[in-house]
Amino acid sequence: MGDGHGARLADGLSLAHGCLPVAIQGVAVVALLCAVGWRSARWRLAWLPVSIVVGVLAVLGLRWYVKYEGMADNPALPVFWVWVGLTGVAVGVAVLGWRATQWWRRGLSLIAVALAVLSCGITLNMSVGYFTTAQMAWGQLTGASLPDQAAPATVSSLRRSRALPAHGTVIAVRVGSSASGFKHRAEYVYLPPAWFASDPPPTLPAVMMIPGQFNTPADWIRQGNTVTEIDRFAARHHGYAPVLVFADVGGSFGNDTECVNGPRGNVDDHLVKDIVPFVTAQFGVSRWGAVGWSMGGTCAVNLAARHPETFSTFVDIAGDLSPAAGNDVQTTARLFGGDSAARAAFDTPTVIQRHGPYRDVAGWFAVSIGKGASQEWDAAERLCRLGRVNHMSCTVARAVGKHDWPFAEAGFAAALPWLAARLGTPAVGAVGPPDSSSIDDALHS
């Protein structure tokens, strides 16, 4: 089997639905049943019930930990918690039945644990849509090139040719951290085709792209499919589109910073004082906007509220009311080292009220209609009302969907024409803010 055919096969294997997730979970169930086996009466009456208790404790413990850490407001699929319980059962069976059984059953019990853990990951992925295909997962795990990614030599060659390429280019950039001190990973910039067609390049707007709570800087490229969408947009507008900047707001995958300055990193300073000057100097951009999903949506509104002189337009897809990492006391402690004044400086409603009337700031909120989405709706409505009182122009659109990456992708696709027009992208005429039908069309296209 050639590499190309293998890649196409992997690309067709869905991890969000279809036969592959079901097959893996089915094999996991069979492995667990075989590992349990028909052992002695003492085993069935004493140790098997203990294994089941271990499974129940695993569910209760993880649910408590998720709530305590403020990891997610939207519930995972119920089957995820079933698999957490079965993983606990599998661990109990492996440990409690290790001594008094055959070597092959010991091996099978370890396989059952591994498959149960894998099934947990698959069902969690089905909730958030992080990996839609096996190829996407493999590409991230192996560090494969991103869509449209090019080496510096290729970018230089495109610049010298002054021709309009068929698609834009993604390049890795190493932004300094002199202003923020924030230790961050490599970040990325998307340059549309028109940027290469003249010398000097045209003056284009830039958009800060901010992912969710658990993230890499490339999430909007892989999981959000933004490069494909913006290439299509550029093709319809003679190669013109905003420059996209894929920022690192975590420093590591699980570091929930909420884009504030605090013990977890001075991320607001990194975005505003490190990235904006660097990209402006390197690529000659002008006006800035911000787009974010989930935690990133919270960040996008906050950036515009705190720095309206820089970020004149924001898109908040399923964000929260304000930066949060648990309840009020936990948020103040975790994000701001217990400093209430520092927290108030990043509390979005407080920031908007303190700033007073804004000038030429506009935002668009996209929220889903689904289980657990009422908090997103309430946050968007409250922020939009508060923004209007303070002369922000804003709109809220609500569409059927889940709190997942496919909804984020649809939200970006729906907002892009309005966003590009608002920021003054050349060759893009005036466009009004999108409505719910625009998200629906993007979700089903």
TrEMBL record:
Tell me where the transmembrane regions lie: 15-38, 45-66, 78-98, 110-131
Q: Where on the tree of life does the source sit, at the highest rank?
A: Bacteria
Chief subcellular location equals secreted
**Which keywords, in A-to-Z order, does the entry hold?**
Membrane, Secreted, Transmembrane, Transmembrane helix
Q: Name one GO cellular component term.
A: extracellular region
A GO molecular-function annotation = acyltransferase activity, transferring groups other than amino-acyl groups
Query: What is its subcellular localisation?
Result: Secreted
Q: Which Pfam families match?
A: Esterase
Q: Which residues form a coiled coil?
A: none
Family annotation (Gene3D superfamilies) = alpha/beta hydrolase
Keyword Transcription listed: no
The protein in question is named: Putative esterase
Species for this entry: Mycolicibacterium chubuense (strain NBB4)
